[in-house]
Design a protein that fits this description.
Blueprint (H helix, E strand, L loop, with lengths): L1 E8 L2 E7 L7 H11 L10 E6 L6 E7 L4 E2 L3 H13 L7 E6 L2 E8 L2 E5 L3 E2 L4 E8 L2 E10 L1 E7 L10 H9 L10 E7 L6 E8 L4 E3 L3 H13 L6 E6 L2 E9 L4 E9 L1 E8 L6
Parallel strand pairs: 2-3, 4-6, 12-13, 14-16
Antiparallel strand pairs: 1-2, 1-19, 3-4, 4-5, 6-7, 7-8, 8-18, 9-18, 10-11, 11-12, 13-14, 14-15, 16-17, 17-18
Protein name: Diaminopimelate epimerase
Subcellular location: Cytoplasm
Pathway: Amino-acid biosynthesis; L-lysine biosynthesis via DAP pathway; DL-2,6-diaminopimelate from LL-2,6-diaminopimelate: step 1/1
Amino acid sequence: MINCSKMNGNGNDFLVIDNMSLALGAAALADAARLACRRREAIGADGILAAEPSESADFKMRLFNRDGSEGEMCGNGARCIARFAFEKGIVKSNDMTFETLGGSVRAAARGDRVTLDLAPVSVAEAVVDAHAEVDGFEFNYTFLTVGVPHAVIFERERSRSFADYAPIGRAIRNRLDLFPEGTNVNFVLPSLERTGVLDVITYERGVEDMTLSCGTGSTASAIAGLLLGITGERVEVINPGGVNRVSLEFSGSDLISPRLEGGALMIAEITILPEALR
């Protein structure tokens, strides 16, 4: 049996585990993510987050996607685990620093709202406004890494329904000639009525489907908008699951320091029973 909290950040949902005792190894967490995150068959979630000891920060965040793979970083997940760590007494202050595979994160948890100072993003090697095609779908994309790889595609209008973006997102995600490690894929529609507002939907690598929100995707979309001159340094990102607010600050000529603010809701305390893991 595994005790966990069910949480969501703008509809990006997770099973969050206190693993400070290291009772669960990486293989056990990967198996639990693959089995317990099945929707309708088990509990259902986009992935598992685990808080573990760190030698350099207050704790370490481990992220295991729904397919069992370990992810480097997740913005919405980072907000959730920050609130979880404070609520569960893993940290004593609601201001904290934690380690991820995608870099160190500073967080401030204030009730169900959490603000993250993400690791600086290098845009020196970003691919900006390149052209490509998959399955008859032509697009221009900007590619950069915000802890994890992201392709950002700006559209003038939504060309299909939310669910119908999944096959296109999957095909782009699997263009390993362009993205050797795969990529998350963000489809972005700038608001015509409000300056600095982006509507973003994301196909997430590891989840292998469209999700209601992606924090690093919101951040990558804001950075791409800045590089292309579409938006400025403060961006409101509207996801199907809620709103993420992104602030960007240049640190030198090719480094951007992002701040991400949004919701982190605690939904339920759950004991995962053995039958969910088979």
